[in-house]
Design brief:
Number of domains of chain B: 1
Order of helices and strands of chain A: HHHHHHHHHH
Number of domains of chain A: 1
Number of helices of chain A: 10
Radius of gyration of chain A: 17 Å
Strand content of chain B: under 5%
Radius of gyration of chain B: 17 Å
Shape of chain B: globular
Strand content of chain A: under 5%
Largest interface: A-B, 41 and 37 residues
Number of strands of chain B: 0
Distance between the termini of chain A: 21 Å
Order of helices and strands of chain B: HHHHHHHHHH
Structural class of chain A: mainly alpha
Oligomer: heterodimer
Number of helices of chain B: 10
Largest sheet of chain B: none
Largest sheet of chain A: none
Helix content of chain A: over 70%
Number of strands of chain A: 0
Amino acid sequence: MDLTLVVLLFASLSAATAVFGAGPFAFGQRLPLSRIGLANAVASGMMLGAAYGLLVAGFARSVTAVAGGAVLGILFVAWTHAASGTEDLDLNRLEGGSEAYGYQVLLVNSLHSASEGVAIGGAMAVSETFGIFMALAIAVHNVPEATVLCAILTGRGVRVASAAGLAVAANVSQVLLAVVAYAIVQAAPGILPWALGFAMGALVQLVMSELLPESYRQAGPRSIALATVVAMGIVVLLQSVAA
Amino acid sequence: MSPVLTVFVFGLITAAATGLGALPFALLRGMSARAIAFANAIAGGLMLGASFGIVAEGTEYGAWQTLAGGLLGVVFILITQRWLGDPDAAIASAATADTRRMSLIVIVMTVHSFAEGVAVGVAFGGGPTLALAITLAIAVHNVPEGLAISAVLRPRGATVLACAGWSIFSSLPQPIMAVPAFLFVDAFRAALPYGLGFAAGAMVFMVLEELLPEAYDRASRAPVAVVVSLTLVGMMLFQQML
């Protein structure tokens, strides 16, 4: 199969797993905040592990380009958060709040997905195994992300099925950017270390500015740190074994 | 000079370099909440970057062993925390919490030096001609580690001299471990991935449980996040350029 199709397939698969995030609500359950916090912590750990993999793969090509790309990735995420007015967005207001808040949360999710798409496309250009691994790691991460989104949306009266659909729709930018990033680094291989660095910086900045601070509000630092470090260790191990 | 003495002296030099990390904090006086937040963010980024480098080295010797070492490192911090006192009880007094955190960073960085010392010794065993280059590289690596320790100690009221002293102290295990590792390379090479994993696990867990939550509490999260991320990348770049 052509690798571009593999990128499309796995990025779509990864985007679609957001449906599972709506699972708990389909059975009319309310999730305790601490559970969501732990899910966020696992997602943080997986993202940090993925960032480590991107960094190692990138440094094998060009150290300076990866560092340059990483700075761009960090600034891109920081800037999009600031420009969209979502840098201090509290994702814990499950009930009440304005309609604008719902849109902001959707916007934040779409911005996240864009960086994740670059990570999938860049990783696929390193090797098919690494690309599929990255897509699967992000797929798992998309579940708790969608759970938070669905909790917010259903809390505002959105039907569960629509909430699940919106959670997947918020990931469309991921599929698009995965394919575009892959096509670009195929056409101009010199850009690859920049793309890897960009994805790495963006993922780390997402974890540091969104996922971790959120999760510390949802559960205690000790359980958050434990969940994060274990998830990170497992992802790093799987990458080292697969490589 | 005998090779053993050489390894030891070079190890001492690298330990002394750690003290240089305290210098930038000569300028910092206050104990403002923001100063603590950003110093935590810098220390966190440096330690995460250092851990990434250590893990990359450890997985070359054995990925499973590195992960096992990492889990042991996490357990070690949990036990040390219990020994230092319950964090919830420490909330009662800010001074107690500060002392606890200061002790913890010194312990974590000292433990991490054991693994680094072994790495130095094993590297020396590979070829003495590289000795000087490796020593220089490690010495330069140690400066940001002193920076991380000082970033936690200085805003909490430690003098610059104390910061430098504790930084050097934290690196003393390097010469102590480098010598036996150099003499018994084969035995120590087997232990190395566990040790490196242990160091990384302990550092990452300390960053996630102690440094970052406090940083987010005391300053808004966007600038804290940018400082952590940029410092992490800077530390990785710094390690790679040497």
